[in-house]
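ok, trying the design again with the full structure, not the truncated one.
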């Protein structure tokens, strides 16, 4: 009974987690292209050399520090949202989120090997990878069903959904 009640919560958490993973996967190549365009390649090489000289615990600081300046920007976005500046607040928050994921992907690429030398970090990293696989496993049937509904001919759709679509089409047609 409790498991059945908590399933929507787990699905929501899995979707949020997968959105983060999707952002990570898609922003990392973009950041790599930006690094190729701007003279960040030299910075990356310099940072890699410095990280190689650091002990793993200090590498964790190098990994965490670039994200800290973005926290006030996220708070500013939330402040704007609470004062009903919806577009500006969402834009600010999403900008901070995207930059944060991009910077984290860049810095993690440089620090990954050193961070994985710490046993506890390696366990957390493995746990996150397993969690990501589990989240995908949980959400994949839902995504597949949505794709089937969107691309299908209406088979399996509820009569309420079909009436809603019919009403929407009628209103669009009347608006012409």
């Amino acid at each position: 009974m409790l498991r059945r009640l908590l399933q929507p919560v787990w699905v929501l958490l899995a979707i949020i987690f997968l959105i983060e993973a999707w952002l990570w996967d898609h922003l990392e190549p973009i950041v790599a292209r930006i690094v190729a365009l701007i003279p960040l390649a030299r910075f990356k090489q310099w940072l890699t050399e410095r990280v190689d000289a650091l002990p793993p615990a200090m590498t964790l600081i190098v990994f965490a520090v670039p994200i800290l300046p973005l926290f006030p920007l996220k708070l500013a976005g939330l402040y704007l949202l609470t004062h009903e500046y919806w577009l500006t607040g969402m834009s600010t928050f999403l900008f901070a989120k995207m930059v944060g994921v991009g910077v984290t992907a860049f810095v993690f690429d440089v620090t990954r090997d050193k961070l994985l030398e710490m046993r506890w970090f390696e366990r957390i990293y493995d746990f996150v990878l397993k969690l990501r696989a589990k989240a995908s496993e949980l959400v994949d049937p839902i995504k597949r069903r949505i794709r089937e509904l969107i691309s299908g001919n209406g088979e399996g759709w509820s009569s309420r959904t079909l009436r809603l679509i019919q009403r929407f089409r009628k209103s669009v047609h009347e608006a012409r």
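Keeping the full-length input from now on. The chain has seven helices and no strands.
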